[in-house]
């Protein structure tokens, strides 16, 4: 008599992990961060509470990891490398490409709804806000710093420019407009941000007397 194959624990764990990610993001988007609980995530995912605590120490840890996973999946579906800025030698084109991908992400309801909930909570919940910045925002901003430094080495950006400040010329307006809904976000908008920013930080030609 043929024996039944042993259960694949790896596959079962991955299925549970995916269900927990989806449940956490859906729940925080529906009820907000304060009302999202580990118990609620577990119930929605169809797993035991102990399963979540075995993998994560808190609901914040679950949500941050789920968010990173969502960004990775979204990029892969679009055929892009997650958390990467290309270096084709054309700084303007590279920045426009990554900001267009960011626009797609911000307009995707799967990302937008939980992102707004977590961002809003991070403003009043200092520990969560700090963790959100440290684990999610800063690694992405560092990619801009690295790309701008490479552009400095290539002579496309003035050597006296601070890349960490310069990136805010196009990243911060987009974030502000999206968060406060002060206007539409689009490819044209982010392309214009890049054009304006690079006009100010590009190499300066000597003035003729």
Automatic annotation (TrEMBL):
The keyword Chaperone does not apply. The keyword Cytoplasm does not apply. Gene3D superfamilies: Homeodomain-like, Tetracycline Repressor, domain 2. Residues 14-74 form the HTH tetR-type domain. Keywords: DNA-binding, Transcription, Transcription regulation. Residues 37-56 bind DNA. It comes from the Bacteria. This is TetR/AcrR family transcriptional regulator. It comes from Streptomyces camelliae.
